[in-house]
Automatic annotation (TrEMBL):
It holds the Pfam family HD_assoc. Keywords: Hydrolase. GO terms for biological process: dGTP catabolic process. Belongs to the dGTPase family. Type 2 subfamily. CDD domains: HDc. Gene3D superfamilies: Hypothetical protein af1432. Residues 70-212 form the HD domain. It comes from Henriciella algicola. HAMAP family: dGTPase_type2. This is Deoxyguanosinetriphosphate triphosphohydrolase-like protein.
Amino acid sequence: MGKPALPEKRAVFATLWETSRGRFHEEAESATRTPFQRDRDRIIHSSGFRRLKQKTQVFVAHEGDHYRTRLTHSLEVAQIARSVARRLGVDEDLAEAMALAHDLGHPPFGHAGEDQLDACMEAYEGFDHNAQTLRVVTRLEQRYPNFDGLNLTWEMLEGLVKHNGPLITDGTPVSALPAAFRDFPQLERLELDQFAGPEAQIAALADDIAYNNHDIDDGIAAGLFTIDDMLHLPMVGDVFRSVRIEHPVLDTQRTVYEAVRRLIGLWVDDLVTETSARVAKYNPQSAAEVRALPEPLVAFSEDFDAQQRALRAFLFERMYKHYKVNRMRSQAKRVLKELFELFLAEPDILPPPLRQDAEQAPEARRARLVCDYIAGMTDNYAIDLHRKVFSIEGIV
């Protein structure tokens, strides 16, 4: 059996843990772990990471155990990111840590929850889940005696804030960024006008690979569409047909699993091939040079990106806008809206010590505290809390 083709040494453009820019709060280095391994471990042990187990992607948690949660999704992204990082010869631990942390700022109920919290916070500078991730890892996690947050490395923080690319483009002022970004006092030290390092770019596209393919699995399992409905799609249809030809008596579930497995492999191969071509084109000699390039170093090919857009368009119409999903979205948004309005108006019913902070705070500050509280909830906790505070049966 042949061995996988792996680089023999670190790529020259990899982020080097030995020359990490360090942490904003000074700490002694670990004797047994690199700084990026330590970042990964801090994320895994955080309360925000644990709560991802009952925060969902598309479906609400009580709909069933089969569907992806933010936790299982993050683990799948981490596996893909680590595989790509290994093939490209960059730091696997940093790529994995980025993948594990990228969804920490998501509220309950997926994008419906984010949309509703943003609407609730419209008068108070809004809500953005990427900015909330920074808030979680720099402020809301309170585990250590000498600082708030997880005190992650500079490389982790800059990768998290640039999950979707540079924050400052075409002269955009820092004042235009979401409040949760601007509240971080070291924000402007994260080189906001440049791309993230290579490992962060890998984690961002591993996120795309994971949700593109696993939404296929979840959508079919939920009965929102069938394999036959997807046969017209470029690449996706070809893969499903090839599985059926090779395994004509395979049941639907295994057919889907095998097709998704192959599709992930195609996505990863294209990502590595296109990125390798860009490495040859630009010849970056450091991670700093990767950040300064005029375009991302890590990317899909144009042809593959077009096929990916066709799949996303299909999923948008047949899954994300399906009436069953819309009903869940509607219910979820009402739950969060009513909780937000209640806690903002009556901070004395918040749990301590949040109650004391909210009661003494100006309205805008109180709104942000309530937003933090709700954003940290799981789907099930939000549903249960809503029942308790709005139903007479909930009185205990």
